[in-house]
Structure prediction request, 108 residues.
Amino acid sequence: MQRKDVPKLILFIIIIVAFIVFSKRSGDSLNKNGKYTKGVITRFSAGAKGARYVNYAYSVDGMYYSSFTNDHFCDDCKTPCCSIGDSVIVHFDKTNPGSCELVHQLPE
Prediction:
């Protein structure tokens, strides 16, 4: 490794550590501040290398949000839930409603 590559390596390591810390905090916040609402599937989209996504929309306190998840979510549906217009359950962070995930059922 050349001396000029050291700053690039340090920057890369800092970015990776920051990503890991941010991901952990984001998940913790969703678990601590999570609420549920009903959403609706709005469309399907394609990503890089053939990836497919389920796009959905939901509202919290009169504000509308949209997000997407990998279409593998559809593989685990026990009821019809993966057609445009179908209802889905959205688990969102009440302190940051744009942070969300789809779930198959409400917790017991």
